[in-house]
Design goal:
heterodimer; A: MetI-like fold; two-stranded antiparallel ribbon; 74% helix; flat; B: MetI-like fold; 2 domains; 9 helices; 0% strand; globular
């Protein structure tokens, strides 16, 4: 289907008439454009990699395990930011997986009339369209004040758990994690739903025919069958969560310390970049590039793995 | 089913409970959308005025002023980014759908998906290293290049899909009457797919207009009018970021107004593309 255009004409057109020369030029231009996508990925790797070399030479791998980020003494480490990135992603996945997967189930079954379901699917997808910076603005003025009573309560009753150990006050890992939850929900829901709706109808018919209830069918038959698609959805969501920048930067408090408490301010790699790049100079730029390289490698790994998992199911 | 199962049956009770729980999760998923939209609409419309579209941002504590320079800056950079990404994106999609070997096509599509997953801040870092660091100045074109990379995957994917569903017969018909390949593609196939391609481009533009991370250290921001492509350039998205984190009420209100513009842009393009794409696939 794809190459049919290229082949038959070669029989008809002979030699080097002007049409064929133009054809070849045209095909080469489009090929160049297509390969430029791969080229961009390579260029990003080279550019960020070479700019990071001074920092890599100075700090080596200890960059990852060191806790201080000190532009005055030119001493840099990104452990707190890696921790913050992992923690916000973890909180977000913890909340978004149950909500997202059950939404996907609810919206792939015929619980509701088709027209109403289509509207709901569209609304969930719309969550992904709202700009990150708008979520950040909303988070500052609505979400943070809104969750304060709940956080206070958690701190007072469950304060012995390290995660609730500090008294809540404004920005921190929790509000950042909550906003990331909202932002990755549509990814999980949409791709899980695709995986569920593309299952062969025979599976369901067989299960119902054997006397299973609808939810027994869903839990014992449909979810296991769609498992790899759902895992792919979660991995793509993880990639998004780790790279999410603006909303997190506005809500996490940007403190370069590790604090186990979810109520304490923290930092992520992406918000470190967002905050410091514009004013950085010298070795700091290189250290930021190194941090960016780590984030790039992490998201690249997660994304490629997710593509691989999702690609396996999309061959239906 | 109704005949055989008693409604007090434990299994069917569990069935109902799970249905209610799953339904409740859908509601929970949609609460943030409604909350964000209503809050942005209320706050944003409250600070709408004509000045918004004609005046420069005011200093802290000074009443009035607008976000006109940011609107111009966003239009400028998104426009430039489209000029770069639309030809490249549509060209790449033409190669994928019309000329590529299946294996090559699979790798290019894979690369497109991977590029789509690269965090937008990394695109900013890349362009900072490639254009800002080397030219020693933040600039509109650096911002535009970052946005154009961001737009590419969306454009390629929708254009690729659009070209693939154009019936094979019209290609044969065109070639049969003696058209060259480039003529067939440019004058027959692409025009047939153009509504969907435009939809994809519109979605990409709406997404780019709201993106902040690739701009904060490529285009930076300025309180003044953008008067050259080689100077720091304001944008709506960066304006929201800057003014959200200041303690001044008047600037916060401008942030809400700018958010309203971005959200309305995204809403209208999403709704329109929804209808356009649905009609096209059938």
């Amino acid at each position: 289907m794809v190459t049919q255009l290229a082949k038959p004409t070669q029989l008809v057109q002979s030699g080097s008439n002007p049409g064929q020369i133009l054809d070849n030029i045209f095909i080469w231009i489009t090929r160049l454009f297509a390969f430029s996508i791969a080229l961009i990925l390579v260029l990003i790797t080279i550019e960020v990699g070479t700019e990071a070399i001074p920092a890599i030479q100075t700090f080596g791998l200890s960059f990852i395990f060191q806790q201080s980020w000190d532009p005055v003494r030119d001493n840099y480490g990104v452990l707190p930011m890696i921790y913050g990135t992992m923690m916000t992603s973890f909180v977000a996945l913890l909340l978004a997986i149950p909500i997202g997967v059950s939404s996907a189930i609810f919206l792939s079954e015929d619980f509701l009339p088709v027209s109403f379901r289509t509207v709901l699917v569209f609304l969930v997808e719309l969550l992904a369209a709202i700009p990150s910076v708008v979520y950040g603005l909303w988070g500052i003025f609505v979400l943070i004040p809104l969750i304060r009573p709940l956080s206070e309560w958690l701190h007072q009753t469950l304060g012995w758990i390290p995660f609730f150990g500090t008294s809540p006050g404004g920005p921190g890992l929790l509000p950042a994690g909550l906003v990331v939850t909202i932002m990755i929900l549509p990814t999980i829901t949409a791709i899980s739903r695709d995986a569920l709706t593309s299952l062969p109808p025979e599976l369901r018919q067989a299960s119902i025919g054997l006397g299973a209830t609808r939810w027994e069918t869903i839990i014992r038959v449909l979810l296991p069958a769609a498992f790899s698609g759902i895992v792919g959805a979660i991995m793509l969501a993880l990639g998004r969560a780790m790279g999410e920048t603006m909303a997190v930067t506005m809500l996490i408090g940007n403190s370069n310390n590790i604090n186990v408490s979810l109520f304490a301010p923290g930092n992520t790699i992406s918000s470190l970049l967002a905050n410091q790049f514009a004013e950085a100079s010298g070795l700091q730029v290189s250290a930021l590039m190194y941090a960016g390289l780590i984030l790039f490698a992490l998201t690249l790994f997660v994304n490629i793995a997710a593509q691989w998992v999702v690609g396996k199911i999309q061959k239906f | 089913m109704y005949l055989s199962q008693k409604s007090s049956d434990r299994r069917s009770l569990l069935n109902k409970v799970l249905t209610v729980v799953a339904g409740a999760f859908v509601v929970i998923a949609l609460i943030p959308l409604l909350a964000v939209l209503t809050y942005v609409l209320i706050q944003g419309f409250g600070s709408l005025s004509l000045d918004l579209f004609t005046q420069l941002p005011p200093p802290p504590m000074v009443k009035g002023g607008g976000i006109a320079n940011a609107i111009v800056g966003t239009l400028l950079m998104v426009g430039l980014a489209s000029l770069i990404s639309v030809p490249i994106g549509v060209g790449a999609a033409i190669f994928l759908a019309e000329f590529s070997h299946p294996i090559v096509g699979r790798w290019v599509r894979f690369a497109t998906n991977v590029l789509n997953g690269v965090p937008s801040i990394i695109l900013g870092v890349f362009v900072y290293g490639a254009l800002v660091y080397t030219t020693k100045t933040f600039s509109a074109y650096a911002g535009a290049v970052a946005l154009s990379i961001l737009m590419l995957p969306t454009i390629i994917r929708t254009a690729d899909e659009a070209l693939k569903i154009v019936p094979q017969e019209i290609r044969w018909a065109a070639l049969g009457v003696g058209a060259a390949k480039y003529q067939t593609v440019l004058m027959i196939v692409v025009p047939a797919a153009i509504p969907t391609i435009i939809t994809g481009v519109t979605l990409a533009i709406a997404r780019a207009a709201g993106e902040t991370a690739p701009l904060i250290f490529t285009a930076l921001f300025t309180q003044f009018w953008p008067n050259s492509l080689t100077q720091p350039t304001p944008s709506l998205a960066v304006l929201v970021f800057n003014f959200a984190t200041v303690p001044f009420k008047n600037q916060q209100q401008l942030a809400w107004a700018a958010s309203l513009i971005l959200v309305l842009l995204v809403l209208t393009t999403s709704v329109i593309s929804r209808f356009a794409l649905r009609r096209k696939t059938f």
